[in-house]
Amino acid sequence: MSKKNYRSIESALIHGGIYGDETTGAVNVPIYQTSTYEQQGIGQNKGWEYSRTGNPTRAALEALIAELEGGTNGFAFASGMAALTAVISLFKSGDRIIISSNVYGGTFRVLDKIFKNFGISYSIEDTTNLDELDKKILPDVKAILVESPANPLLTVTDLKGVADIAKKHGILSIVDNTFMTPYLQRPIESGIDIVVHSATKYLGGHSDLVAGLAVVHDKELADRLAFIQNATGGVLGPFDSFLLIRGIKTLGVRLDRHTNNALKIARWLEKNSAVKKVYYPGLDSAQGYEINKRQAKNGGAMISFELKEEYDYKKFFSSLGLIALAESLGGVESLACHPASMTHASIPREIREKVGITDGLIRLSIGIENADDLIADLQQAIGAAK
Hints:
Elements: H1 9-15, H2 56-69, E1 73-77, H3 80-88, E2 96-100, H4 105-114, E3 121-125, H5 130-135, E4 141-147, H6 159-169, E5 172-176, H7 181-184, E6 194-198, E7 212-216, H8 219-232, H9 238-249, H10 251-271, E8 275-279, H11 289-295, E9 302-307, H12 313-319, E10 324-325, E11 335-337, H13 349-355, E12 361-365, H14 371-385
Parallel strand pairs: 2-3, 2-4, 4-5, 5-6, 10-11
Antiparallel strand pairs: 1-7, 6-7, 8-9, 9-12, 11-12
């Protein structure tokens, strides 16, 4: 239906992938709430057999995320961890994956507690130091998995640099692009092989679904991942696929508000006498500011910070009013998180503290409320924490 005569991602968010319904003219892809499809004869079908293997609503979502990320094929899963699990399943016993020194706790957990049992190992490295990273690529290393900005310290890794190292050694490069989304950052354009998302977050955008996405850059990888998706079966259902398409349509306008709010709040925190340190890649004082500026549209909408020693971070959390203490991120509402006991609790304390995930670290997912109202809530919570 859509002629696809657009150039900008803002239009692609709405018209990309498989747009509308050719049969009825509906501007939304229907929810094909079916598990199976009637066949005309043995081995004769209309392209659909069983909804684990393929569903038209899910296919529309998969085509959309592939277009937005600039890849060849997209894959939709029941959660971000299901997407990551499928990607890690590309590897075999004896393989090792390098991960960034601060990544989502669930990423660490699935490698440390699940895949380690099958002989797939990992090592934690500072991926911001490309020279040292290059030296860590030993024969058993088969992939580099990074987040940029990373969760929760918002450290920035040079994605093109990682992609170049991976290509030099004949291994895969994988980026978790959850924090930035393709609206702010497109890792495949930097040469990255695989992009994964917890689509629960900004892509869905309304804290009402759980989903994961993966995008690959070539047909060979697509064939391998399609086999794993079908064989293991952790697919996204048609109704959640429909909700996710709907969420993606407003991604641009939401993220514009999210990121404008975040920059204003980060600057306010940086000047606040109660704050010891602010982590936000959109500040020109931040680690990796210039790299992030080169590879991303802006600093995103996630902020982490630490209060000075005379402030009780537990009282800070209990004193918040407008901002909710909750897991997850990326919804229209602002959320506060204590990484050490919530998102990153599965990482051993010694590893957390070594990379800087202290007990006093506070992570904010900045929503689309009025920025001054959010600042007022932070100010009164900081005051109550002293």
